[in-house]
């Protein structure tokens, strides 16, 4: 089925406005509920008398829970229903996130974080697979940037919101408890909305005309056939490909630094500035606002040029350089914070082009399995990086030492991804 140029442009706009706003909102809720423990730590740690090492392990153990349904979650989206799977994820993680308000011991904290990871498992790789059901290759980079923009946006909003909630004391509950409750329950409500609003595939979309459904299904099917004609790859074969391992190890190294930076940023900013909790969260919000600019430009630029790999590598290496500058001994807080803001600008620019790489040459099922497999390494890094930083701070490491370690992680990740071989037409 062929459509005219204007009809195709109208179809693209219709899909974008129907799919992306809800998906961005879902990921915004997901990342805030995952990361708000870094905001809560400013009060929660002293109230519960948790050490830096306890917090590092508690933050990181989320990612071990996440691993359980990583690959199955991506395959369920490919072969079953994104709508039902995402609704299940949202409803359960919202309830568990809110329940974190009532932990009292380190073990209860670990269990709550582990269960939150289990509840959210498969969400991110599932969305990447879901995008392949709706967005042709030329639109996928910008679609990914639209998703990734939810990360800095959620934290840019979450930082000042959490600063306000930390100050309340309603019904005898501390502010950090209300922060978990009020930031967790909206995810459950969104899960119910998802069940009724999200559409699995174009052929199920009553909001498209029959001609639009046929055109979009035909375009996506043609791309899938083109990939299969070049190289038919089974799931087991995909997990043995050098490219898959390079991507897995690249994101492992990068996220060892990236996840730890995100979770420990408020604590680091407070230590560097010597200011109040509200002051630390305000400046943390500036970092995430800079990230908004970086992720939007990266998606636009990588789609315009067709390049994915070098946009990714440039963001990783630049993040390493700016983090190293922020860690330079003897610098003022103003210089360190400026360097951190530039870090935010580039630290969120690499994921959109990175996550476009696995879908360029693999068949649908192989790509789904590969994405889940790669994201396993991404989440192992989240566990390792946070545990290492918690241990380093517990042992008395300086802020500069921690930042240099994080910078090294970004640099190693960029070097590994630079060895990925990408077909010339896909760059």
Kindly describe this structure.
This protein has 427 residues and is mainly alpha-helical. It has a single domain, classed as Growth Hormone, Chain: A (Up-down Bundle), CATH 1.20.1250. The mean pLDDT is 87.
Largest sheet: none
CATH fold call = Growth Hormone, Chain: A
Number of self-contained structural domains: 1
Return residue spans where pLDDT drops below 50 for at least 5 consecutive residues: none
Mean pLDDT: 87
Beta strand count? 0
Specify the oligomeric state: single chain
Specify the CATH class: Mainly Alpha
Distance between the termini: 29 Å
Broad structural category: mainly alpha
Overall 3D form: globular
Instruction: Report strand %.
Output: under 5%
Radius of gyration: 21 Å
Order of helices and strands: HHHHHHHHHHHHHHHHHH
Q: Helix segment count?
A: 18
Give the secondary structure arrangement, pairings included:
Blueprint: H1 5-48, H2 52-66, H3 70-79, H4 82-99, H5 106-120, H6 123-132, H7 137-148, H8 150-165, H9 175-197, H10 210-230, H11 235-238, H12 242-273, H13 277-305, H14 309-327, H15 333-347, H16 351-356, H17 364-394, H18 399-417
Record keyword descriptors for this entry:
427 residues; mainly alpha; Growth Hormone, Chain: A; 79% helix
At a glance:
The protein is mainly α and 427 residues long. It has 18 helices and no strands.
